[in-house]
Amino acid sequence: MSDSKARDSVTPSGASRRELRDYYERKDRKRTRLAATLIASALVVLFAGALFINSGVIRRSFTAMVVGSTKYSAVDFNYFYQQAFSNYQNVVYQNMSDLATSMLPNTSKPHKSQIYDEETGETWAEFISSMAVSTLEELTVLYEDAMRNNYSLPDDMRQKLDEEIESLRSTASMYGMSSLNKYLTSMFGPGMNEKEFRRLAEMTYIGDAYSEYKRNEFTYTDAQLNEYYESKKDSLDTFTYRYFLYSADMPDEDSFADDDAYEEARQSAVDAAGAQAAELLAGISDEQAFTDAAAEYDPATYTGDDSTKRVYMGELLGSIYGPWLRDGARKYGDVTTIEANNGHYLVFFIDRSDNDYPTVDMRQLLVSIETVNAEDYAEDETDEAYNAAVEQAAFDAQTKAESLYGEWGDADFTDEKLLELIPGNSGDSAENGLYENVYKLQLDAAVNDWLFDPGRAPGDHELIESDAGFHLVYFTGQAEAYRDHLADTRKRDEDFNAWKEGLGTLESQRRWAYRFAMEIY
Asked: What is residue 9's predicted lDDT score, i.e. its pLDDT?
């Protein structure tokens, strides 16, 4: 036995004071070394655990949600969350751009800390998540069926996927990021990389392509389409009419003791408006008289010949005056008053069309007029600077359009040349500017009138000005009858939806790794 081991084995009993002191010093040193070793080991474990938790591995490898029997990670869910949010943003900006700021969450705060629905307390994170889950459930059903049927992504769709990824790579470079992976992480959160993005995007592309493939599998004879249209004509026919509301002098609801008293007063006011509307109706003998009566009743609202005129499909007519307009006995010049909750509508029937006319195919390059932000000229009390900026924007758009039109003309106004000019120049949302099966009044009035001119022939071209900008338009030719197009589209939609419902539905369940989802939102 070594001297050190011998000394360590000596017990304090019977030891001298010096030996006792050495004994305890040796024990303290051993305990200190052991504690240091344990602490260092614990720190290594904690550090490794932190690295693991904050890495993308856990977000890619562990299940955050199960849809049916398919497992999705937090990275997967983040992808669909971002897609749902982006789609919602686009809808808001396209349809209510002026209200977009107030209708979307604050970008400087997490979605989970902002309330979407004040009544229910639902947060923005919960609202967007519910849309993402719905998309994921529907996509999973389609994707699994596509895989069962050995469906593969068509070459043109795979090319689009490749182009999308290359576009993202260019965007990453434009923002000064060293790699696409860094950009994807900033967009979708930790764990996302090019490989994961491609996998998820391909799944989405397959779902869309497979849906279109199955939808196009249905075929119909002319007799079937005609039979379908006839069964739906009250919804599909196009109605042209004039109308305006003779408003009742509505009572103040807060001044009544109960609902019954208010309802009695409201009905009395509506009845009085109905009597006045009937008197006005008695003096209407034709369409011009109807227009004049509306202008006399409310000149601020009903100015101009088109202020009372409407053209709608039957399904959009609503429940108040829709049944009267859809009555098969209606003929030009029929006029009536119809009670509403706040007055009486005066309605003049003009026409009912069964849409039996050819649609048209066309291509356009739209030179949009740049929007001038009025807030930038808030201090301009005379509006001179603002109006000058608006005029300059219109002039710039016209100059550009005329230049492009001239370049197009140098190539004999061919469809191929117009297609070549579209990238980078057109503000139109249609792919390659192509519009197929265009129906009457679908597009701007000026473009519509040119397209449906009886003398229009394939190859015709024109530069047309509208409120949207300047249209370089190429007329491809007439297409199928709008009646047949409507019947085919609606019946195909119904049959496709029935097929999709036949696939069943899948329920989703969250797993523990869901806590790592939506970290950047």
From this structure: 46
Residue 521: what pLDDT?
75
Task: State the average pLDDT for the chain.
Answer: 88
pLDDT surpasses 80 at 361: yes
Residue pair 321/246 in contact by the 8 Å Cβ criterion = no
User: What confidence category does residue 43 fall into, taking pLDDT thresholds of 50, 70 and 90?
Assistant: very low
In terms of domains, do 323 and 206 share one? no
Write down which residue in 297, 320, 353 finishes a domain: 353
- Residue 431, domain extent: 358-482
Residue 465 · residue 357 · CB < 8 Å:
no
Give pLDDT tens digits for 397-447: 999 999 999 999 999 999 999 999 999 999 998 999 999 999 999 999 999
For residues 367 and 404, is the Cβ–Cβ distance under 8 A?
Answer: yes
434-438, strands of its sheet edge to edge: 434-438, 358-368, 469-481, 461-466
Tell me whether residue 122 is in a domain.
yes
CATH of the domain at 389: 3.10.50.40
Nearest by Cα to 12 from 21, 25, 2:
21
* Residue 507 is assigned to a structural domain of this protein: no
- DSSP annotation of 444: -
The verdict on residue 500 lying in a domain is no
